[in-house]
Task: structure prediction
Amino acid sequence: MTVAAEPQALNFECETGNYHTFCPISCVAWLYQKIEDSFFLVIGTKTCGYFLQNAMGVMIFAEPRYAMAELEEGDISAQLNDYAELKRLCEQIKRDRNPSVIVWIGTCTTEIIKMDLEGLAPRLEAELGIPIVTARANGLDYAFTQGEDTVLAAMAARCPEKAPVAQEDKDERNAISKLMNFGRKQEDVKVSDSEYKDHPPLVLFGSLPDPVVTNLTLELKKQGIKVSGWLPAKRFTELPVLEEGYYVCGVNPFLSRTATTLMRRRKCKLIGAPFPIGPDGTRAWIEKICSVFNIEPQGLDEREAQIWEGVEEYVKLIRGKSVFFMGDNLLEVSMARFLIRCGMTVQEIGIPYMDKRYQAAELALLEKTCREMNSPLPTIMEKPDNYNQLQRIYAQKPDLVITGMAHANPLEARGITTKWSVEFTFAQMHGFTNSRDILELVTRPLRRNENLKDLGWEKLVRDEAIV
Result:
């Protein structure tokens, strides 16, 4: 009598490494562009200012909607009045830029000296008449992309509980509706409105570029699902209504704090879905939302097959190759699942922080993908120790290492092909249509190596490599 082998499960390990990532205050780089009527005030030291200046460019010819409130020695030693100084700065911001919201970003220093930003904000907000949202994005507690998570969690508390019913708002909505439907027959407008099925309100959360927001909204519309709003919205004054019982669904794996806030504080129902990264993830994301609303998804088989056919030229370049994630932006599990579907072998998934509850559906899809592709299940290493990781990289010799910028050049000097993980953070990679962009980034160093072979460069690098 033979005993059937138990199915292999994902292996989770945790080392004691630091967060080898960018500082999370870098979230300002994409959030101030997304929320067009906002102003971000980062409260920290000159080091924070240098980082922002280098990470986001000098921008001589532009006026970005963010600034640094630099703490001096007097601030740190509690010899100056925090409230008076912040009031002076915010009055200047109101006078010069007149934003709809000011977001205070607390840094490591404000944490260490116990600066009471949450206590100061309501008092100053009442005096200035401008909403002030306080978010902690310090590098002591959070990894790179979790800065956005803390900001969105703070903004979730500002979402209105009831839809506006004032006559001016009705007139404005009617005017916008007429403008959007200008030139269309009334019958066509009614048909468009009737395309949606009857389901509870759905709000999606996660900061994405406008074309990607439109793309995902239209993909759900094809299934008869109406998106009631996005967090964040393009304007702070257009934050979505969040009532008890509303359904919410995230589009990024690093938004666990926002998801918790929406469930506990706003009493919303979280749809635990894989994330819409790659054709397989996007399909699973849509299917999960459809299943919650008892809607039978239509045309997803053909849609996914069409995308895979369109990216085959890239997939054949990486099929059969191995990849190692050192861990940086918390997109690693979703990226690994997609690359396994493309035929790659993932040796290790390093990740700074892992919320197994929020990423449960993504982890389940990763296991399913490994079984279907007959690929070994990778080890998921939380808070990896970089020294130990480097030893594993030398031993396993992956074809590609996706890593933070700090380790890319040293690895390249040792003949190991790398790709910066930060490039995926800023790329448009969600939805069916952006799968090509992901593969363009993944295959670029491999294509570069192929082009250099004819020049004999590969042999030169190998001979010069430091072992």
Q: What stands out?
A: The longest strand covers residues 38-44. The two ends are 50 Å apart (CA to CA). Confidence is low (pLDDT under 50) at residues 1-7.
